[in-house]
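Batch 3, record 17
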Amino acid sequence: MSKVRTRVAIATGDPAGIGPEVSLKAALDPAVQAICQPIVVGDARVIERHAKVAKVPATLRRIDDLKDTSVPAGALAVLDVPMPDISDFEFGQNGAAFGRGSLAAAARAIAAAVAGDVDAVVAAPQNETSIAAAGIEFDGYPSFVARETGTDRNDVFLMLCFGATRIVHCTLHVGVAEAVRLITRERVNRVIGAADAALRRLGIARPKIYVSGLNPHAGEGGLFGREEIEIISPAIADAARRGIDVAGPFGADTMFHKKDCDAFVVMLHDQGHITAKLLAQNATAGLAIGTPILFSSVAHGSAFDIAGKGVANPTAMIEAIKRLCAVPVAAAAA
Amino acid sequence: MKGPLALTLGEPAGIGPDITLLSWTRRAELELPAFYLLGDASYLRERVARLGISVPIVAVAPEEAAAAFASALPVVDVGVRATAMPGLPDDTSAPVAIAAIRTGVAHVLSGAAVAIVTNPVAKNVLYRSGFAEPGHTEFLGKLATEATGRNAHPVMMLWAPELAVVPVTIHLPLTEVPNRLSFELIVETGRIVARDLQERFRISRPRLAIAGLNPHAGENGALGAEDHAIVAPAIDQLRAEGIDARGPVPADTMFHPAARASYDVALCMYHDQALIPIKTLAFDHAVNVTLGLPFVRTSPDHGTAFDIAGSGRADASSLIAAIKLAARLARQEPVRASAAS
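Prediction for the assembled complex:
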């Protein structure tokens, strides 16, 4: 059997931000080229313009179909997802067309993964103002990926990854009062299950998971709240009965000092994001777990202030691609 | 600074006696200020023997403590014997711990001590004995109010050279946090923090960064109403009073080095929002400082650690940091987080 390279679709994110530039830089990175065949997804005219302005030395080859095998060696395939009109395109500007364009590219890349034409999807930063201007409801990639893959949005969670640390969020972009309402035994069960499945998919044979509490000191035996006793501990016991190696709940302020687990599960956005942004500043990948596909975004923004200047740093995207490729590459080597 | 610091015994069965003894042994090397322990001298001698270390214990009156400090650990008796074995609090635990706190407050208010440094207590042990205050800090506030006749509103700040944080709500179930947060609570907390950073930490114009309650500080109401309905108006009020306050800031973006350089203290809306960053940046050397009291009070940022009490494995770093900070505050030296200086 001939060696089949892992194919990674890079959705280029907001056209006016640094997304296309970091996508191109990451796709050309020698470490990325060594482990996969990257395909850049977005409006080809916009991507060509970024390459020119940012002076990215890429030979781009437009394709309309992922089955197109005419891309010559040394060229980078650009799957064209045209926006209707780019005549007023400017770097660093918000616009409804850009919001629509960034999500259209992401949707195309996800569809390719669902169809099996690519093995994984990495999405460059979107811009939420432009998406809102387009009138599209969007509260982060996990629920977008759920929608595009026909997955129940309650089964999809964000896993932030940096270095050897992975943090899975039971609730994400909701207010604290709403988060408390959402945290049920069933949901905690689902997030633990999704974390376990994702870790196995990432090549960890027997994942170990630690779960945080919701309240100060994980409730301190019921003194500061009862969710740990009534919801989180029973959910952990449920998951353990299903054979998952899971422990907790631990106070979120001391849990992250534990080193002997493969992932932490936290209850709230800030419990995970404060930690991630303190410990890893530029190389955090955000995996949407619980879906049928491997999908990651990067945990930085579209950086309008430096868009089109050629100075954007592709480290986070390179790390995200490496992380997603770890599994298929390992499988191919076996 | 004139006069010694008063250290309270804390829970005798915890690591308080251990880390006090360890701190004393490092007094010369670390140039620690003179301090005395409020407790029970014979109990301390037993702990010295158990630990197999060489620390002379001398029972003194407070005014003799500073002179005795160089050659022995001075202990001022609080009139209650401690008998608990390490790790096993008994019926004397709560009475002796409480007596030490009461005596310490009396000493610091009378000027016999320049500041009070409290060793950890066990809340459940105090509660079992009928102690009716939510915790150590609230008890100190009550004693200060009783002694001075002026209402003290204690505010907990966790301080390390890297970061200072104030949780506006502390040991509260998260479900109660949105209801308990109010314009008044945030404004009053901000005023006390600004005043004490000015008067005690000698920061001429303290800069307060105030976190939002919700992710992304509520994102204009899309992720919860509290940030624009409660937090933002409270910040406006503080600014109207001339306090350098800003926010609501998304909590996940306010703790990287560049952000920390832009403020002197971060006010957070709930326990984990404040404790996660300080424990990440300063796991073993953060100090708990109580603002809003008519005296200086610090304490180590950890609990009684019953499992290692009397074993010699306790780490005195946080108590040492608390002793040093209390002395600097008592001397009225300018103190700020280094990231912000």
